[in-house]
Known about the structure:
phosphotransferase activity, for other substituted phosphate groups, two-stranded antiparallel sheet, transmembrane, single chain
Amino acid sequence: xxxxxxxxxxxxxxxFALVGIFLTWWIILMAMFIASIETKSLGLFxxxxxxxxxxxxxxxxxxxxxxxxGIDTTITTANDMRITKSGKFFRDTKIDxxxxxxxxLFGTMSFVGPRPDVxxxxxxxxxxxxxxxxxxxxxxxxxxxxxxxEEQILSKVSNPKEYNDTxxxxxxxxxxxxxIRNWSFKKDIEYIIKTVRG
Length: 198
């Protein structure tokens, strides 16, 4: 991406993040309130993720899971016992992602790009794969759309973490590398429209 393309992408992010926050702030507050009651904790989930240039930042989401002892917290599947009733609805409708509009506004995320992962994935990339770290992670993107049912996929395999690390993650890297190398503003808009349509 050249300087003009980066400027265009960032300008779009700022303008539409502001519009999105203006339109959905009340939904975010209502969802946080409901999540707080059901999880008996703050309804806003904050977790360190790997961003541009491998810098860590806090991603914001509506809390959709409660803490349970003895449950593997590294991978989430569709039948995860930690997911609350409201959490399932928030996940299905993508309401849990709305607080990330603030991440986009602050510049730690973009509307379109590779999804931000916890430490041990993007920050561990080597060689040409590190091109994924040249742009901010995104709310959606080609890899996110392909694996929009990732939790359902992982719930059907015997070892979800191993399958994620050896199959899904490798495919996501390849998809995201192609996205960055062939970036266009038009494609970003198409990815956003596909995401909204579900």
